[in-house]
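To: structure subgroup
Subject: Chain for Friday's discussion

All,

I'm putting the inputs and outputs inline so they're searchable in the archive.
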Amino acid sequence: MYYNNETVIYLNGQWQLAKDTSTGLYQQSFHYGNGVFEGIRAYATDQGAQILRAEAHYERLLYSAKMMHLDVDYSVEQLIQLTQELLAKNNLQDAYIRPLVYAEEKLGLQAENKSNLFLCAWDWSQYFAAGELSMKVSPYCRPDPRSCHVDAKVSGHYVNSILAMKDAHNEGFDDALLLDQKGYVAEASGANIFCQKDGALFTPPKGNILPGITRSIVMQLAAANGITVHEKLFTPDELMAADGAFLTGTAVEIQAIGSINRQPFKLPWPDTFGATLQQQFHQHVRLRKVKFKKTKAA
């Protein structure tokens, strides 16, 4: 799925075939989760492959590495250039790109500053199957921001997501909705959430979420449509009383939610702000002219 005999990857200054690449087994990243990564998409356009918000993604990667005391000897500009080369070497235009910064070999719990840089890319058109998601409120909550840097994209944080997703799948749901420590909606297993109510959009504020880059794009598109977005706390009951809802993220892009705990939303998906923003998002990422629909702000 991710590579074949001709797939090229980048590791610590060298271009290699993925099938011939190896690394040590004693890193903190493998044993304790001390690594950071990004998920980035590139889209085919009339002007060639365009990496979506490359600068923002690599700024966040460097921020995440700094928070985990991992030194990265690359600038944002160098990382973008390497990513463009990665796409060209693999003849990819529509692609999912995964940069990973992982620690050196050391099995103590002291922070390990030395790091490795791994870049790979593959064709990953859809994270979820087409259609509307069935989600459940998870028994697992987001990590407490007092225990770690929740605004950094740290490998170890995603153990939480794996547990939540597995629990949801075991009960026949597509994805999980995680709450914060006070019982407010935080995010899905790997995406941010928006809901529509009273002619406006609502999304959880920063503090207990990973502030997504697709989330920021959606907020910009909403503003261009005259749609007010409120960043505020809301409960699962308030969410289930909404007119509609959707997820945003690099992997999921914009994904409709059909129900929470098997309770459907009031409006059909095509009649929601989310459906309009989904269409505009796909125009935006492929550098096509976006036709905005001015809506009376709530």
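Points worth raising on Friday:
The domain at 8-122 is CATH 3.30.470.10 (D-amino Acid Aminotransferase; Chain A, domain 1).
The chain has a mean pLDDT of 95.

D.
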